[in-house]
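Cross-check.
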Amino acid sequence: MIGILDYGMGNLRSVKNSLDFLFLENTIVSNPEDFKNITHLIIPGVGAFPEAIENIKNGSFHQPILDFAKEGNPILGICLGMQLLASFGEEVERTAGLGLIPGRVILMNPKDLTIPHIGWNGLSYLKAHPIFDGVKKGADLYFVHSYYFKTENDNNILCETTYGDKFPSVVVNDLGNVVGMQYHPEKSQKQGLKILENFSRMEKC
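Predicted model, tokenized:
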């Protein structure tokens, strides 16, 4: 059962619609007790880092997320949901994140290009991971963001994308069960749906 975290800032409907299209069992996680009923967790997100973290804490989701990850359960962070996995975010003000993947979220500064970075862009694969099984190499995915995840360790980068400069577009924790994607797989057509399907097949570490 895939849980979609509802902390007041996620694009829940588009994620749920994609999972329903794939006939994948899913439910909205709207309180901490719901963690008992899921095997996988998706953290979607649209908005500002500080408000998102505040909502997660106010909803008493912070510790359940950390416990869920520590137990080896698969977690997928999408867009802002990816950024929340970091140690800190520097949007608006320096704010502590979930700390599941060491790094910080900082403003993009692409040479001669505007932000936000909006549109289709490709991935450069640095490491293999089951979440990309059967995904077409060179496929474009859909991005909408102004900040990016700067990891402390290159080992935590699965993929990079170029928008003026290279930035980590897919990150992973050391155990391999927590993955963050800067793009929106639920808006990325066939290849994005394949990624979500692969996520549903990830096993507990």
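The chain has five helices and 14 strands. The first strand starts at residue 2 and ends at 5. Passed to J.P. for a second look.
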